[in-house]
Predict the structure.
Amino acid sequence: MQPLSSLLRIDKSDRQPVYLQIANQLTDLIRTGIMQSGYQLLSSRQLAEAMDIHRKTVVRAYDELLAQGWLESRAGSGTYVATHFPEIKPQPISNGGKEIPNTKKIAGFSFEDKPYLRRAVLKSMTSLRLDDGFPDPRLAPLEELSRAYRTQLLTGNSYVKLGYGDTFGAQWLRQELSAYLNETRALKTLPENVLITRGTVMGLHLACTGLLKKGDNVALGELSWSSARMNFIQAGANIFDIPSDEYGIKVDAIEAICQKQPLRLLYVTSHHHYPTTVALRADRRLQLLALSEKYGFIIFEDDYDYDFHYLSKPLLPLAGADRAGMLLYCGSFTKTISPAFRVGYLVGSENVINHLAQIRRIIDRQGDNMLENAMAELLQNGIIQRHLRKSLRTYRQRRDFFCDLLKSELGNYLDFQIPDGGMAVWTRFDPKIDLGTLSQKAHQKDLYFSDGADSNTLSPKLNSTRLGFASSTQDELEQSVGIIKKLLEQSS
Amino acid sequence: MQPLSSLLRIDKSDRQPVYLQIANQLTDLIRTGIMQSGYQLLSSRQLAEAMDIHRKTVVRAYDELLAQGWLESRAGSGTYVATHFPEIKPQPISNGGKEIPNTKKIAGFSFEDKPYLRRAVLKSMTSLRLDDGFPDPRLAPLEELSRAYRTQLLTGNSYVKLGYGDTFGAQWLRQELSAYLNETRALKTLPENVLITRGTVMGLHLACTGLLKKGDNVALGELSWSSARMNFIQAGANIFDIPSDEYGIKVDAIEAICQKQPLRLLYVTSHHHYPTTVALRADRRLQLLALSEKYGFIIFEDDYDYDFHYLSKPLLPLAGADRAGMLLYCGSFTKTISPAFRVGYLVGSENVINHLAQIRRIIDRQGDNMLENAMAELLQNGIIQRHLRKSLRTYRQRRDFFCDLLKSELGNYLDFQIPDGGMAVWTRFDPKIDLGTLSQKAHQKDLYFSDGADSNTLSPKLNSTRLGFASSTQDELEQSVGIIKKLLEQSS
């Protein structure tokens, strides 16, 4: 065997301490069988001299390995590779003796790929954007939120406040949310009916994990939110696609399914159907509830943008008319504050909420106590409510301004209906326009909008996309539409 | 039919606005078939007079229902229940005509109970506690964290910082963590090998969802963390229990399993075995890695308390010696700061990390950008590292003080080994002592400690429990031991 010092390499510019570099390389030499059980190491003094480092560094490395059992010390004799190791056949150090990183590009085991989870990453780092329908965080009560968070963090009994909490979420927020939902949505909940989540997607994941079995039948709009579809596929559900029209999903199609096989769950965005923004008409709502009772399927009502309705009268959620306990109602603060605040809620019968709270334990244990309590404070003080009134006014103005622009500037290229609520316009482009190319060219001009690939899976192709107006000022909206107009004029 | 006004009830003390109370009750009357299609409602003026409320309130309720399609307005004639409703057979309003809450105790559908997820809720609201091994948040750099969080929230481009981010976690934290893990644990990771999670439990949940199939064989210590076991059961795994001794889990038992059937994954807390606190000896580590390569099973290394080791030389994680890409390494800030800060990490081969980041999308979409960036700042500025050095000193003193106390005051009643690391002592009580009764009596004296039910599932019963020392001052530890001593003296 070569002299020990020649097998070790030290890089003083490395952030890893030298003693750890040595210790790690020594274990590698033992592991690969190059240094066998019983091999006597150089004394720390000898090795330090050979490598021109401080003796203390070598002692520290040896001590480390003695404590771990790699080496053993024999009184008056020196330091040896421990004898309890199995004999290991030396393996050639590949890579020409150079250090091999121990984290890899490709794992040593295989796993089933899940192509249905793959999704183009939306990176809207452009200055301008007509997004999927996100709020404008410049309007959000961030200063108030920051103060409330700080109070939660620094006051009170830190062991209790910063320790493990309830898997249901912070009790204060459950109370405030229950009252808030009862007031604004004509629900009649108790705090026991409310489970705090990390947003709508976790509500879906909990329902899928807790209420679905592999092979269960699940129905949702043929056009609907991709993360809902992904969750149902992951749960092993059989998926039935429901067509929709200008009054929302077609409820007759659901009954047709129920007549042939048991349906376990229906997913619906009743308030503003995603992506087309239309509301589910009242008679269909009634019919849906009646079907759910008759056939015994769960309704998962995703009411992601209830608070953003521009007529004076928002449609009350289905959940308020559910007498049979068939409904799970889901919402979040994503549209209220900003997507980064991962706080949402699930509302349902108490036994279901208890069941899903148990599942919560194995997903992420619990939410963020400090943030949940800060949100509760903002609800109690009416700050969220005031912010909603203010942003609703602003977004209504932006919607009107944007729709006027779309009509006057782009009326020859696209068609749309003015949405009654939400933060985006569902636009249908002229079939001659290639949305993929247009979106790419806009990106080069520092404007992001989606090519609608998620929504154009149907045949014939809809050539549609959502253009969000809420996160841009009127000036930004004008610039954005100007860019699209110029690109369309150039290519026609 | 009774006059409309007699069917409606208004409660002005209710937080729900009166117009919503009316609108909601009207839809109920339609839904239950009491008001049929074509029924003419009182005019808003008539109803307002009959109910002694402002006419505007009634108009608002009617407008709401007109917009939702429950009612229709016929020019010059009045307001009617819409004609497009199917005929509904009137249902008796149960509950003597009183309002029925629309959220229930019991759902209208059934679901499979998951008894393995049920767990007694640990509520440590007592003044004193010897917990499972939690840190003392009174020592944590909360002021610095609060400032960093505030900076993240209020500065920079809010659309980018508070919008949707990467499912991998904040890039800055991935970089800082990669460097930190390389320095402290002799890993050789790149940021691409790091996925930010909400803590160890989410790391497990991601691995279960992404890498296990129903029926896969999984091995873990016969005594181990209950949340790990729950996750494997939920994933439908066949579980093999591995016995352990004073050197950690018995690796020979794992090979015996592999010889009979394919093993997919081994879960191990190599640094300090949970709950017994012993470290996996170096030769067993080697043997484990060799077995993993030979039989192709994944090692999930949960290194929950690596940073808390009281000898000068912590055992390096298995992950540092993994040349074959068989390892997933998992850690969190739970022990560093406090359980409420739900930030952790998974380290693995890049293709596995990419795969698990896709699954992350359907669980909670992403972590808390602001908190993750704040943690990155604290790592970059060395604040976490300084805090770790400081708390390590404090916890070592508390361990020594506590172990001295246990020996001198309770030596007749229990037995233990001084742990080399972690935040709890694994104590074995005299078989004559009933831990359940003792724990309950202590609770009445304002002291919490676990009765060890989670750890006493084996036969013969171990009569053991973990007593955490890190979260209590010396004074609090003295009081706590005093209470236990008094209770034991009284009952003997």
